[in-house]
Amino acid sequence: MKDLLEKNNSIKPGQIGKIVEGKIIDKIRSVVFLDLGPIGTGIIYGKEFQEAKEEIKNLKIGSVLFAKIINLENEEGYIELSLSQASDELTWEKLKQQKNKDETLMVKILAANKGGLLAEVFGVPAFLPVSQLLPEHYPRVEKGDAYKIVRELQKFVGEEMEVKIFDSDPSQGKLILSEKSKEDEKIKEILKNYKVGDVVEGEITGVTDF
């Protein structure tokens, strides 16, 4: 979030799309007014209020929040703001930082389909493909029967898994997770001890058709 705010601060004040920090100075029914400092007074109302009303109802006068400028000046001279758009952008920035740092996180599996497992990260829907599962979690099903694959994957629903962010695309709302990434790192470290031509012992863990 800090990186995103610093990037936005390099933009001239009062530019559409900029995320700004404001303090609530008044709440009237379905309208919230924010003090944006030298920029002026911001307002959250209409559709933008409805989309964020659950979050707004817990806020009090003096609360500080981040919002995105969507209109520089409405008919009453206020800067129109969106709380939900700012929240989405800050969340994706947080996910980006998580990926760049290559950090692991725990997610709860919410559902399964034949392609993999479904979860959420910071409220964003995420997908953990079968190909990114650890070998011991991979559904080895005879003839790749889709029904049996789903049945095997459903065993993980409700459980927590340690994963890394494999790929993300905020423009498409795509967030892909990987369980085996952390295992891949361990394998890379082990492989550093070997060179081409070395003879090693191995155990067959599975056989499949390609």
Structural account:
The protein has 210 residues and is α+β, with helices and mostly antiparallel strands. The chain has five helices and eleven strands.
Break the fold down into its secondary structure elements and pairings.
Layout lengths: L1 H8 L9 E10 L2 E5 L5 E4 L1 H11 L7 E8 L7 E4 H18 L3 E5 L2 E3 L2 E6 L2 E6 L16 H8 L6 E10 L4 E5 L2 H11 L19
Parallel strand pairs: 3-5
Antiparallel strand pairs: 1-2, 1-4, 2-3, 4-5, 6-10, 7-8, 8-9, 10-11
Properties at a glance:
alpha+beta; single chain; 11 strands; five-stranded mixed beta barrel; 210 residues
What's this model, at a glance?
By secondary structure, the protein is an alpha+beta fold. Helix content is 27%, strand content 31%.
The strand count comes to: 11
**Series of H and E elements:** HEEEHEEHEEEEHEEH
Shape: elongated
Helix content: 25-40%
Distance between the termini: 44 Å
Radius of gyration based on Cα positions: 24 Å
Spatial sequence of strands, sheet with the most strands:
1-2-3-5-4
- How much of the sequence lies in strands comes to 25-35%
Average predicted local confidence, pLDDT: 85
Based on secondary structure, the structural category is: alpha+beta
- Main pleated-sheet profile: 5 strands, mixed, barrel
Helices, by number, come to 5
Uncertain stretches of 5 or more adjacent residues: none
